[in-house]
Amino acid sequence: MSDVPDLRVLIVEDQALLAMELELVLSESGCDVVGCAMDTTGALAIAERDRPDLALVDINLLDGMTGPDIARRLVKEHGSAVVFLTANPEQIPDGFVGALGAVSKPFDEATIRGVVAFARQFIRHGAMGEPPRRFSPAPWLAAQPAGIAPR
Q: By C-alpha distance, which of 86, 114, 29, 45 is closest to 10?
């Protein structure tokens, strides 16, 4: 792993301990965690300032079920890739282009490391690797032409 972080990552999670754990694992995985947010306002302010490559976004936050709305704006306005974090995968909107997929809670460090590797390969090379366990890739990825990332 390079000493220089190659992915700017935003964490949008309202459980402070989980956000701190994610920040540690992401940092150890060679990512630059640009910030942690617990709601829409915080997430969008960090995104505007730091333009994350990847965002890990919980579906249900302090301000309600706003994760999909935040994700839409991150994809559209900042070109970020999104991975949803959720205990309720049925709440993820169908056909959400830009979301690489979802990780089911609870998850472990190995799963997050695998998700980072999967996202890094897709963001940097437009290629899909083997999805990590407990990660459900978005259906639109299967239809994505090889070598073309959604930027």
A: 45
105 vs 66: CA distance, rounded Å:
17
Residue 128 identity (one-letter amino acid): M
In the CATH hierarchy, which fold is given to the domain comprising 7-143?
A: Rossmann fold (3.40.50)
Q: Which residues contact 53 (CB under 8 A, 6 or more apart)?
A: 7, 8, 9, 80, 81, 123
**CB count in 10 Å sphere of residue 8:** 18
For 65, list phi and psi in degrees, rounded to 5: -85, 70
Q: Which two tokens stand for residue 115?
A: 């998700």
pTM of structure: 0.89
CA-nearest of 44, 40, 83, 43 to 65 is 40
Mean pLDDT, 10 residues at a time, the chain of 151 residues: 76 96 96 97 97 96 91 94 88 74 92 95 86 83 52 41
